[in-house]
Every structure is written in structure tokens, then in C-alpha cells.
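Handout for the seminar on molecular recognition.
Each group receives one record of this type.
Step one: identify the two inputs.
Step two: read the structure output and locate the region that could contact zinc ion.
Step three: write two sentences on what you found, then compare them with the reference statements printed after the record.
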Amino acid sequence: MRRRFEVAGIVQGVGFRPFVYRLATRLGLGGHVFNHEAGVTIEVEGDAAAVDAFAAALRPEAPPLSRIDEVRAVDVADAGERAFRIAPSAAHARAATLISPDVAVCDDCRRELFDPADRRHRYPFINCVNCGPRYTIIADLPYDRPKTTMRAFTMCPACQAEYDDPRTRRFHAQPNACPACGPRLALEDAAGRPLPAADPVAAAVARLVAGAILAVKGLGGFHLACDAALAAVVAELRRRKHRDEKPFAVMVRDLEAVAALAAVSDAEARLLTSPERPIVLLARRAGGPSCDEVAPGNRRVGVMLPYTPLHHLLLADAGGFPGPLVMTSANPSDEPIVRDNDEARWRLRGIADAFLVHDRDILVRADDSVLHVAAGMPRQVRRSRGFVPVPVRLPRGGPPVLAVGGELKNTICLTRGRDAFLSQHIGDLENAPTAAFLEEIAAHLQRVLDLRPEVVVHDLHPDYHATRYALHRTDLTRLAVQHHHAHVLACLAEHGREAPCIGLALDGTGYGLDDTIWGGEVLVVDGTAMQRAAHFRALPLPGGEQAIREPWRMALALLHVAGAADRLEQLLPRWPHAEARTARTLRDLLARAHPFPRSSGLGRLFDAVAALLGIRDLATFEGQAAMALEQAAAWDPAVPPYPIDLVPAAPGGTPLVVDPAAMARALLDDLDAGATPARAAARFHATIVATLVTLAQRTRADTSLRLVALGGGVFQNRILLETISARLTADGFEVLAPAQVPANDGGLALGQAYFALLSLG
Ligand code: ZN
Ligand code: ZN
Ligand code: FE
């Protein structure tokens, strides 16, 4: 008998055809396999038992990098094919093809890397069809060597033979290379002059041991590397990078080394060793081998394992660097990660003491991804290398849409049918180089996905760079969606849901539909319709934007609404960064009802409480004070909440307004009565949990909805995410929380794209 299989998913450039060849040959089947625009077509012919065995093995034995979305099988007439062959690809193999993300070096390649008898022994660019660079080296479709940055290297006869042989792991492995024919490593001094070294890796390790800061070219850009144990060196790196306290990630040799640094659960260990090899946020061990300067005042540390052959060599048991290495994206302050060698030499001048470079070009930047495990599963914090461009499957399709995202932690999103391709982390668009990066990514994604968007969708904020970019796309149909509505839709989208729901959208800042900034929102979302069921009281931002960087100003605003501004003098000593005269002036302006901008953002309330408790009065990066407040909390689910008032905006009407005044007074009294900041921080968390659960219950009573979708950066707070999810679930709600895409603005573009499809549907 003969059967045809149509396979869709990530099935090209991942060793799928050789896998099919080996499977069919093993089962004694004839037939053929070929690539085309919609995936892979297979026909096998032989006895019925063997054909069934083939069908049964197709999914479970598929190569590690493939992702089968769909298999359709149909019996066809015998053709008398006795042997099995790999047929040429159909022309125009584009359209529905999916590109693999970059993948960490596989176990087979790692064994060869350290095998003195292997011809690729210690070769930093070893790869095979199961591992290596993909997305970051592909210029265009179809995914073939001439369309990648490997086109600069001509394979030697040995590599070419592997490339042509379906029985090897390197059959059609586009980046295939060896020391005779492939990319090479080189070490350069601070001025970019070559430093001759027989073994550049050994020379680089010697410099790291001596306390140097090295720029190391990786997969999606350069890292800055240094000894994570040396406080003076890490402090010097902070000074040169103009990075005050934002944590650095560290890379260590293996799981054992991770365990010395931080507590690791099984789920976290699986994530650390996954082919995506992200940075995983872990609970740091006191007295571990990395110095406090790595993540000042932070109880968590971002850790990753080696993912390129070069990383393995740098951290090898023998001759490698022994301890944890700081491995942070190489960029001056918050600009995009450095990509090219020339770019590194000028943009990292004065930052790096030496450069470890190579001559395989990176086509598109991609930072390391960051995840944490919360409420029992991995959740994205920054989705980039290893995950992009794997699509999120949407509940519905439509015309191709370009969603341009928000202002901070920007990503963009393109849709093709029901697939949503969220870009890698682009960054904060406030600086010009990052804004240019957005256009670079938009162009690249359109090229490799072979997509021409027909619709562009953006945030309502008129001054976001992304909005202005969208407004310039006069060639496209333009749509806009409210920020928190998009957060809720992003969560629904990744869970493949279209039903109306209660949305809890909690973050720092988002453009509202009235004259205030939103961010403490209980919404009723039904597709493109959105209503505000409840929200936190909008607090004045004393000094506008400045209040976001200086949480003590938010504390002052909270004191004001609580009628406790007379506490200022008592609290001033807890705010080392507050100038007394400025604080008194702001207090007086608040008393005179000065028209400061106002925000209901829950992030601002966290800032206020962090400052009231003397935990943080200054934020050197977004979310720092809120993070410190979470970490300071002596959390226990039985902690009693403070009182908080829910008052209708208009008598008998909606939305309900959460007034934190009574809570603030109770918190101050609690402190007066001797409560520690740790206890008060825990009770504050309990208050927010109880408030949101009550609001969800009231909204359910009004609407009969029991589906709840969570969104917004506040849900990176594990206490809130885990406790709110658990309590709502126990009370009969169905709760959807962000996992595949970040809860923060990094996931916003997905919600925007989904909004556009719903609008056009
Ligand atoms: Zn490999
Ligand atoms: Zn070669
Ligand atoms: Fe947001």
C-alpha cells in the first residue's frame, strides 16, 4: 500500500527530511519526501504494517528542533517505488514555512567539541542539523546556505560530503563548518588591534582571570564578560556601562555550579538546560560565589548555562574560566545590543578591555531571553533568543497585521493566518538607536516571513515612538487599541481564547481613555469591546515623570490622599534621595490641588508603599521599587490585609474606585505600633490580593463572567500572581495567566495584533 502525509509546522531546516529518510529506510519502505511552501510532503509505499509503523513513529521520533502542527494522511494508488529518496524542493518554498529559532549546542556536538580525536576538537563553531544559529543568520527565504551569513564560507570536501549525505547529522545543516573551512576566532585589544594568540580562548580566559572586561561575540550580539566574584571589576563594568543597579546575568559551567549560586527547583533546572537556554531568575544563595555587585540589594539572580560552543570552551572544566562569569548584553546604557565587529570596536570603546570576535556575521540582533518559574510553570519576562520566531497560535486568522507595541520593553508582532510572530525584545524606544532597531526588526521579520502587512495597529498614546512609526505607515489600514485592553487580549491570545472575560490589567503606566494614566484596571473585555468595571484611585504624580523615578514622591502623594501629609517630617529620614525643601514644596502644591498628572497604575502604589516603608526611595530602573517591596515581604498567605475602600465613581454606578487612603493610614499606624517593614510589606500584598479577588467576584456578580485573564508587568510579582490565581480558582473562576509571552509590555504587541484581527473579523 501507499500513503501520503502532509506535514505542517517547523519542518524545514531542522533535519526533518533526513529523519523521514532514515525512518522509511529502517522500515523497508519506498517512496519520497520533499519540501514545499506549506511544509513537507511524504509518500511511503510497502506493506501495511510498515506503513502504519511509519505513521505511528512520525510524531514521537521527529527531530528535536521540529514542531509538527498538523499531519494529514491519505491512502493513494501504488506507484511501484521500491527505494526511498529525498526529492528536490518545490520552487517557491516560502509562504507558510516556519524558521527555527537559534538553538544551544546539542550533546552530540558538545561531545565532539571535547573529543581530541574529532576533526572539530575545540572548534568554536561546531553545529549540526539539531543545533546552532538559525534566525540570527538568515537573511531571506528559502532557508539555504546562500541566504545566510554562512555564504561567505565555502565548505571543504569533508564538510560538503557530510552536507550531502542524509545519513549524517550534518545533512543540509546550513551553518556546517570546520576549522579548515569555517569561521575563525580572534582576540583584539581595547583599540581593536589584533592580539596574536595560538589559542584565542586560552588567551581570553587568562585575561578574565586577571580581572579584565571582555567583549565576546555570541549568537545574537556581543556580551560583556567579567569575573562575577570580583566586586571591584563588576563595579567598574557598571561605571563604564552607566548602569547603576540593574542586575547582570551570570553564566556558569553546569547545573552543579548553578546550585552553588542559587536554589534550583526541578522545573528551573529543566528550563536552564532546555535547547533555548534562557536566563532563569533564581533565588540567590547568601554567600554564593558571585559578588553582591552583580545584583545589588536583590535576592534573585539571573543565571544561564553555556549555549554556544565558544561558551563551553570559555567555561570548560579543563583550561576554562572556573567560576561564574557576568554575561551581560554589550551595549552602552539602554541601547540595542552590539552586533557587528566594527560596531563593537567603536560603541564599546572605553568599556571593553579586549574583544573576542569572529568572522561569522550576525544578521539580526537577539538578546538572551529571561524567564522565571511562577505558579508552577515557566513564564517569559523577556522573550528573545531561542524563542523567536516561533509563532503563537491565535484563535483566529485574517489579513497580515503589523502590531508595533508600546514604548518600554518594546516588541513588535506580525501575523500570518493564525500564526502571530512576536519579535525579539527591542527595548526602550526613548533612545534613538532603539527606535531605529524597531525598523530594522520590522523589515527583517517581513523578509524572512515573506509578509506584507495590510494593517498596522498601535497604542493610543500619541507620543510613543511606536505610535508615530505606525502613523507614518499611511500605506496601511491603521487601528489603535487601549493599552490595558491589549494586555488582556495578549493573555487571551496565547491561550487561544475568544470568550468574553474579566481582565485584571495591572502595570505602571498606560494611556487611559480619560485624562489620566491607567494601570490598576479591572476590565470587562468582549473582543474589541472594553469597559472599566473598577480601577484604583488615580494618584497625583508630584513632578510628573520624575515621580516614576523617585518613589518618595509617590509616597508623598499617598500621604496626601490619606490626609496624612503632616507625617512628612517623620518620614523624611527614610528617604535619603529626597531633598527636604523640594518635598515640602510638593506637599504644599498637593495641598493646593496643583494639577499634577494622575495615574491609577498599581505600580505607582507599590512605589509609594516601598518608599513609606523605607525600602526604596529611588528607582534606577523600571519596577525596581516594586521588586524590592515584593522581596522584602515576609509573605504568608494568612497575613491579614489592611482595610481598603471601594467606592463607586458615581452613586450607585460603575466603575468602582479602589481608594487606598484607609490602607495607607492603617499601614502607618501598624508601623507606629512596631510592625517591621517586612510585615507591613506582606500585609500590603495581602491587601492587594483581597481587593482584586473582591473586585473579580463583584464583576462576576454583575456580568456572570467567570473567565479571568491577567496582564501587565505587575504580574511578574510572584506573590500576586500565585495567590490571586489560587484564590480565584478556588472560588470557581477559570484563570488565564501570561506564560508564553511576557506579562509586561513585551507582550503588548500580541494583544494589539489580536485586537486587529478581531476588529477585521
Ligand atoms: Zn549539534
Ligand atoms: Zn570544513
Ligand atoms: Fe503595560
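Reference statements: The domain at 100-125+146-382 is CATH 3.90.870.30 (DHBP synthase). Residues 155-156, 158-159, 177-178, 180-182 surround zinc ion (ligand 2) (CB under 6 Å).
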